[in-house]
Amino acid sequence: MSLLGRYAIRKFLGPFFFGLGVFALIVFLADLFDKMNRLLGSKAPAWIVAEYLGLALPYWTIRVVPMATLLAVIFAVTGLMRTGEFIGVQASGVRPKDFFRPLLFAALAIAASASLLQETLLPACWQRAQTLWRERIHPEWEWTNYSNMALSVGPDQFVTTSLFEAKEGVMARPVLDFYGSEGLERQIDASRAFYDRSAKRWVFRDGVDRRYRDGRVVSEEVFQRLPSGIESEPLELVMRAEDPDTMSVRALGKAIERARRMGERQQPLKTALQAKLAYPLTNIVLCALGIPIALRLGRASRPASFAAALAVCFLYLWLIETGRTLGAAGRMHAVPAAWLPHLLFGAAALWMGRSSKI
């Protein structure tokens, strides 16, 4: 990379990390204030609360990376114009697109890094944070009875029950299904099931054990007591709804397959998967859009540049969330719901760049 390119990137990185810190702090504090009453009323030790808050930071930081990128581009370009450096670069014969190309490479590198963290660090941190919240900070929800529950009890094994009493470890009218490569292979249909704490496994009572082949029942065996291979404790079985934003692409793929097998709605998960795949484009498009916007702002002050960055970014993110909402509701196919905002803003960035002779 040329000396000029490294200089442009240095001008970009300062505002980027500043914006990343400011935006992440704002959304983090908003979430903190929303949970303040529960945190203050919790019996958890202070270090548990501190760990929970620290583990939540990566989630909010990754969420605001596009906003920080746009802010950095506008600040960097308007700053170079205010100091006359951009005019000097043009006078020396350097084409504007060659001067701004390193900024696009920087945005691409940041997008790749954020995507990597989103697939590795974020799910681990968020899962640990939610475990602390549910088990140590705000555990009251655990002692609730659940009606018409679907529980994942192992690879390709699911239980549906009309009533699940988590604290007592009892299921009413449980049906345990075993799935294989050809579909349903076995089904245990019982009147009740309970968790045997001495044997550390679930036991089904008064039911029928059916075997399937090609979707048809090939054998049935009535039982009064049938120990199962399910060793998970009652509270471990509750399927807690996960935020798709905190799931990896691989986890979303598994969730989609699980929803398909259980006959549940897949559209919200499919939309979330497409949105996650399209996420890296957000950084690149906002960078490409920020350059011509900054050129039009000229020698605008930092407050004016900050306001312009916020306005453009909020409009872009609003369209992204609108598309995700329509996709999750089934009013749009998952692919256009996730990708259309990027294509529209990408076209706008291309048009503005050409009109600015970049």
* Biggest sheet character: 7 strands, antiparallel
Number of helices: 12
Shape: elongated
Order of helices and strands: HHHHHHHEEEEEEEHHHHH
How many discrete structural domains?
Answer: 2
| Average pLDDT | 86
Approximately how much beta-strand content do the residues carry?
15-25%
Distance between the termini: 20 Å
**Category from helices, strands and their pairing:** alpha+beta
| Weakly predicted, low-confidence segments | none
The radius of gyration is 27 Å
Number of strands: 7
Helix amount, in percent?
55-70%
Keywords:
7 strands; 2 domains; lipopolysaccharide transport protein A fold; 358 residues; elongated; seven-stranded antiparallel sheet; 19% strand; 12 helices; alpha+beta; single chain
Description:
- By secondary structure, the protein is of the alpha+beta class.
- It folds into 2 domains: 3-120 and 265-355, no CATH class; 141-240, lipopolysaccharide transport protein A fold (Sandwich).
- The chain is 61% helix and 19% strand.
- It has helices at residues 3-34, 36-40, 46-63, 65-82, 85-91, 96-119, 121-137, 234-237, 249-261, 267-297, 302-328, 334-355; strands spanning 145-154, 157-165, 170-172, 175-180, 183-196, 201-213, 216-227.
- Strands 1, 2, 3, 4, 5, 6 and 7 form a 7-stranded antiparallel β-sheet that branches.
- α1 (3-34) crosses α3 (46-63) and α10 packs antiparallel against α11 (302-328).
- The protein starts with a helix and ends with a helix.
